[in-house]
Structure formats: structure tokens, C-alpha cells
Design goal:
This protein is α/β, with parallel strands linked by helices and about 250 residues long. The chain has helices at about 10-15, 35-45, 60-65, 70-75, 100-115, 125-135, 150-155, 175-185, 215-225, 230-245; strands at about 1-5, 25-30, 50-55, 80-90, 120-125, 140-145, 160-165, 190. Strands 1-2-3-4-5-6-7-8 form an eight-stranded parallel beta sheet. The radius of gyration is 17 Å and the shape is globular. The protein starts with a strand and ends in a 9-residue tail after the last helix.
Length: about 250
């Protein structure tokens, strides 16, 4: 199974890198969200066959905007396959940096365009602005990490060669929103993730227990149930979708 979004550089993950199982995880994409984590992810990818995305996350724009100047050079590393996660977040206090977020997002879209790299997107309470900005710069593909938009957002974002990824929230049987959304996504546009260690299946994990890519099977199980498809068929479909974006997606060795 593929985990197309996680953060293996985080302290809770580093001690468990060697335990990521080829039997559970066929390949993964780890995201760096500011300069220090960019460097950490690139160094880890020199040891493990992980795919990497690098970008300045909207959470860090206010304090680390200048780090974008260093991004382009790091994106040329052989392990890097995408720019991200980048985007807009207007939740609570983050809206104070709205204009700076938009500038940072635009600058990074241009970098992605120039390097012909897909973009991993973070979007919360900002889909209208995101849509308007995506119309100004063309990139090869968009991956909506932890998608939480609406049916209207699905329809209008499809024009940009968009893919939509779901994670642990869908494992919650009471999460009607995510279960409805995943049913609306065309099967050839569906991706799955853990966003580990930040996200976890709360109904199965304790408060102090962190997730890792080995737990991605819980997401696949939930989605296969919602879509009423065999988990083997779902895995094949997600792999096909991943390789429609990245033909040379690195895989874990046996």
C-alpha cells in the first residue's frame, strides 16, 4: 500500500524508520514543511528509498518566508518528486497572515511550474482563494492532502488535474463528511495517506501513541468498506493513480 503523505523527519518517527514494513508499505512520500525539515528529509532519503516533497507550509510563512529563497536548489535533489505541502490556511489566528500566505503560495507555484513538479496542497477554509490562484499558474498535477472541501470544490478543482487524498479521519465511523466525500471522488483520482505522526486513528490509538506509515492499512480498510470494494482492488487502484502522477515513484525494497 502507498502512503502519499507523512512526515518521517519528526522526532517520534526517526527512531522507527527501520521498522517501516515492506509488507505493509510499498512506497511513501514524506513532506518537509520548512527549511530544517527539508534538509532532514533529504538526508533520510539518502539512506531509505523514500520519496520527498518540499515546501513552506502556511503555518510557517509568517516567521520563515525568506526560506523560500533556498527552496529551488533543494528541489533539484533526485529524491524530490513534488513541491509541498504548500497552500492556504485561514483557520483562526492563521488568517492574520493571509496576504503573506498568498504571496508565498504564488511564489512556490511558480517554482513548481518552472521545475515541472506536481504540488501537494494544504487548504483549510480558503478554497475560493486557492481556486483563483491556481488559475494563474499551471503545474503538472495537484494533490489535495487530507481533503476536506465540498462537492463543489471537487468539481472545480478537477480542471487542474487534481487528485484527492484521505487519511485517518475517514476511519472514524461517525465521520459522515469524509465518508460522503470519498464516495464523490472519481476512483482514478483517489489517494490515501497517514499524515503521520500528526494524525492518528483516535478510536484505536491512545493519547500518547503516534502513528507511522505502517498504519496506512487502517485507512485502506475504512475506504474499502465505504466504497464496497476489495482492499486488494483498492490498493491496485491507488497504485495506478500514484503512478499516473509519478512514473518513477520509489518503492521500499523487500
Amino acid at each position: 500500500m502507498y502512503d502519499i503523505h507523512c512526515h518521517i523527519n519528526e522526532p517520534s518517527m526517526k527512531s522507527r524508520l527501520a521498522t517501516i514494513s515492506r509488507e505493509k508499505v510499498k512506497g511513501l512520500l514524506t513532506s518537509g514543511i520548512e527549511k530544517q525539515s527539508w534538509i532532514e528529509n533529504l538526508n533520510i532519503a539518502k539512506v531509505y528509498p523514500f520519496n520527498v516533497s518540499l515546501g513552506l507550509h502556511p503555518f510557517h510563512v509568517k516567521d520563515k518566508f525568506d526560506e523560500i529563497d533556498d527552496l529551488k536548489m533543494l528541489l533539484t535533489d533526485a529524491s524530490v518528486i513534488a513541491v509541498g505541502e504548500i497552500g492556504l490556511d485561514y483557520y483562526n489566528d492563521y488568517i492574520e497572515s493571509k496576504e503573506l500566505q498568498k504571496e508565498a503560495f504564488y511564489n512556490q507555484l511558480v517554482i513548481a511550474h518552472n521545475l515541472n513538479l506536481p504540488v501537494i496542497l494544504h487548504c483549510r477554509r480558503s478554497y475560493d482563494d486557492l481556486y483563483s490562484m491556481l488559475k494563474t499558474v499551471e503545474v503538472p498535477a495537484l494533490i489535495f492532502h487530507s481533503f476536506s472541501g465540498t462537492e463543489q470544490d471537487i468539481l472545480r478543482m478537477k480542471e487542474f488535474n487534481s487528485y484527492f487524498s484521505f487519511g485517518f479521519p475517514i476511519t472514524n465511523e461517525n465521520s459522515k463528511k469524509y465518508r460522503r466525500l470519498v464516495q464523490l471522488i472519481p476512483r482514478d483520482r483517489l489517494l490515501l495517506e497517514t499524515d503521520s505522526p500528526y494524525m492518528r486513528p483516535k478510536h484505536r490509538f491512545g493519547d500518547n501513541q503516534y502513528s507511522d506509515p505502517n498504519d496506512v492499512g487502517l485507512v485502506y480498510e475504512a475506504v474499502s468498506e465505504v466504497l464496497d470494494v476489495a482492499i486488494e482492488d483498492l490498493s491496485v487502484q491507488v497504485e495506478r493513480n500514484v503512478k499516473s502522477i509519478w512514473k518513477n515513484f520509489r518503492e521500499l525494497s523487500s
